[in-house]
Amino acid sequence: MIGPITRAELLASIRRGHDRWAAVLAEVPPAWMTEPGLPGGWSVKDVLAHIAWGQREAVGLIRARALVGSELWRLSDDERNAVVVAQNRGRPLDEVREEAERVFRAYVASVESLSEEELNNAGHFAGMPNDWRPWRTVHDPEHDAHHTADVRTWLDARRRGA
User: Fold this and answer.
1) How far lies 78's CA from each of 27, 30, 36, 81, 121, in Å?
2) Can you tell me the distance from the alpha carbon of 78 to that of 91, in angstroms, rounded to the nearest whole number?
3) How many domains does the chain have?
4) DSSP structure class, residue 127
5) Domain CATH code at residue 16
6) What is residue 162's predicted lDDT score, i.e. its pLDDT?
7) pLDDT of residue 135
8) How far apart are CA 136 and CA 134, in angstroms?
9) Is residue 161 in some structural domain?
10) Is there a domain that residue 126 lies in?
11) With b meaning 16 or more CB within 10 Å and e meaning fewer, what string describes 10-45?
């Protein structure tokens, strides 16, 4: 999806991705949530914190109606992700899980606040290049699917004892 989108389509995509993510998370025993083993040596908790960070950034962008956010966006993807994971490694799992759910609710509410015109027209966001689609800036369905698949693969291998 790269063209225009309706708010209903976008919200359905967000919720589908979140439902798949929640389903795979529900299968991970709490004791395994902090074990490294995912790509980059990440744990499931690291991925939770990473996703929450991105959604929190999207909330800020939507609320400001401007291309704003963390200074970490100036870094490469790998550098930014390493900082986010490092910032969250020492946090308790329950705290990261609660924050991820709270941020997801705020994320959905923020997306719901956008008109279809705002979702599809960069002119409604200060500093956003005119050829961008704002909805693509706040939601990347492949990103969520990628992490869900990584956790599924790791979980299946972990269960097999691999």
Assistant:
1) 28, 27, 17, 5, 29
2) 21
3) 1
4) T
5) 1.20.120.450
6) 63
7) 96
8) 5
9) no
10) yes
11) bbebbeebbebbeebbeebeeebbeeebbeeebbbb
Question: Domain residues for 93?
Answer: 7-154
Residue 139 lies in a domain: yes
Amino acid at 61: L
Q: How far is CA 29 from CA 8, 24, 107, in A?
A: 33, 11, 26
**What tens-digit pLDDT sequence spans the chain (162 residues)?**
578 999 999 999 999 999 999 999 999 999 999 999 999 999 999 999 999 999 999 999 999 999 999 999 999 999 999 999 999 999 999 999 999 999 999 999 999 999 999 999 999 999 999 999 999 999 998 998 999 999 999 999 999 986
Integer Cα distance of 88 and 103 in angstroms:
15
